[in-house]
Amino acid sequence: MKKGWIIFISLIVIIIAVVAIVGGKMYMDNKKEQKTLDIEKQSVKVLKKTFADVSRVKIERTGYNKMTGSYRMVVMMTDKQGNSAHFSYGFVENDDELGSYGIVDENVQKQGTTTAKIRVIFSDGSEEDI
Fold first, then answer.
1. Cβ within 8 Å of residue 88, ≥6 positions away
2. End-to-end distance of the chain based on CA atoms, in angstroms?
């Protein structure tokens, strides 16, 4: 009888441990995803202060460099005339300037400020007007 209880309690402990590990991983993944979304929103606000006549930004991917603490976004930016430029830029959390970015199309990537709301499609597929 005691052997049965030991096996039963051991099984319960193993199940609780597996649930805790899986739940913890899901929590951490969700936290990381939310952090990425927050960084993408910050970077789009700075992008609006950098380029004029932006109407839409689609963030295709976001990468993080642990050594520098910076992010790199790959985006498709569309202007009010419907022209698009595909490029990447660097961004550091809570910074008010974009890091390095390449000029792909000067007609789309015009220096200036966009004051109107723009449609943003984030790397997770969610959308928002910023």
1. 72, 73, 74, 75, 101, 102
2. 65
